[in-house]
Amino acid sequence: MSYQFIVSTLRLKAECSQLKATAGEKGTNQPVNYKSINSMKFTVSIILTALLSFVACLYLPWWSIAIVSFLIAIIILQKPYMSFIAGFVALLLLWGGLAWWISMANHDLIAHKISVLVINADSPFLLIGLTALIGAMVAAFSALSGALLRRLF
Predict the structure, then answer these.
(1) Alpha carbon of 60 to those of 50, 51, 85, 118: distances in Å?
(2) Which helix (H) or strand (E) holds 75?
(3) Is 61 left (phi over 0), alpha (psi -120 to 50) or beta?
(4) Buried-exposed string 114-152: b where 16+ CB fall within 10 A, e elsewhere
(5) pTM of the entire predicted model
(6) Residue 64 CA, distance from chain mean position
(7) What residues contact 97, with CB distance under 8 A and at least 6 apart?
(8) Which of 3, 40, 103, 116 is most buried when burial is the number of CB atoms within 10 A of its CB?
């Protein structure tokens, strides 16, 4: 073998090892991005809580949202405050959206009458907000309980 062939082979090996190191293959000790993992867990938790709560409320009583958010918080490992926020956001959006959709379907006729009875004000949007807040608080404290129970075990 010639001297030039050996030198070119060694250069090629060095370039390949540099490319492997920059490509992030195994053994390169690249740091793990935990923020993106936690944000994915948070997003998945919100979507699953909202979706499964919607399905559960079709067949079960309204308080089944508490069972769903409790189970989601046990299954998806998050910090307790993140589980609380995920449950709150999921049901705030779900119940707020559903209450708004139902109210818009009948041009706020029922919401006007109920808001006068319940909150002594003719404000259907305040009633929709109150409905969303009640559902959000139930789901949030249920998710917090699930996350704290998971922390015990």
Answers:
(1) 15, 14, 24, 25
(2) helix 64-75
(3) beta
(4) ebeeeeeeebbeebbebbbeebbebbbbbbbbbbeebee
(5) 0.76
(6) 18
(7) none
(8) 103
- Which residue has better confidence, 117 or 6? 117
Tell whether the model's pLDDT for residue 35 goes beyond 70: yes
Q: Which amino acid is at 64?
A: S
CA separation for the pair 89, 139 (Å, rounded):
9
Question: In angstroms, rounded to a whole number, what is the distance separating the alpha carbons of residues 147 and 83?
Answer: 6
Q: 31-40, long-range: CB within 8 Å, 24+ apart, which pairs?
A: 38/78, 38/82
Average pLDDT over residues 48-67: 96
Q: DSSP secondary-structure letter at 81?
A: H
Half-sphere exposure of 93 (CA within 13 A, CB side): 11
